[in-house]
Automatic annotation (TrEMBL):
Signal peptide extent: none
Domain of life according to the entry: Bacteria
Keyword Lyase attached: no
The protein's name in its UniProt record: ABC transporter domain-containing protein
Residues in ABC transporter domain copies: 2-199
Molecular functions per Gene Ontology: ATP binding; ATP hydrolysis activity
Amino acid sequence: MLQVLKLCFSYPNRTLFTDWSADVGPGVTLVRGGDGCGKSTLLRLLAGLLAPDAGELHIHGVSLHDAPDAYRAKVFFTEPRSETFDRLTPVQYLAAQRLRYPAFDEQLLDRLVDGLALDEQMSKQLYMLSTGSRRKVFLAAAFASGAALTLLDLPFAALDKASIGFVTGLLEDASAHSNRAWVVADYAAPARVPLAGVIDLGD
Ligand SMILES: Nc1ncnc2c1ncn2[C@@H]1O[C@H](COP(=O)(O)OP(=O)(O)OP(=O)(O)O)[C@@H](O)[C@H]1O
């Protein structure tokens, strides 16, 4: 589903990727690595939010370089630390995601809001929510989006135990998807989730 060919990317004082290639298929692929190894940067590159110095990215044959809007329309990625949506309530943020993704699953969203215990947070602006609740809103959007490629950065960070169990169950389901690819960046493999592949960036 996602093809990366000879990707190169450096920050001014650090080279992170040199001629790096990968094929990502349906199901859950783990991007594993220690602090500062480049997990979040790789997700930004795959999302088309950060321009590579060289290389090609395709989703279902759509090239980021040739058709950036069509490529980005196939990807769900809200950076967990994003402040872009701070003034929106979860209801407004989720409405915006619903408009963006044609396969957005409204019924699943209801179950996600319930399962992540977000009901009481839905009409507060995002900046008023705890880190964990903000992350849960972004996770709900990710799972409901129906995007061909969904990128999750540290999906369990700042979550309560019940939500960790719930998100693990969602990822177990995602591992069986035949039409959606999930790239999950974390320090270690999530327990119980069968992985379609592992991209190891080292420690
Ligand atoms: N905007 C930036 N400008 C310059 N260097 C950056 C920038 N963002 C990240 N870096 C550096 O690039 C490297 C990779 O950072 P990145 O956040 O991608 O790693 P990470 O694996 O996600 O880290 P963590 O697990 O700690 O979140 C780090 O050395 C970081 O300091």
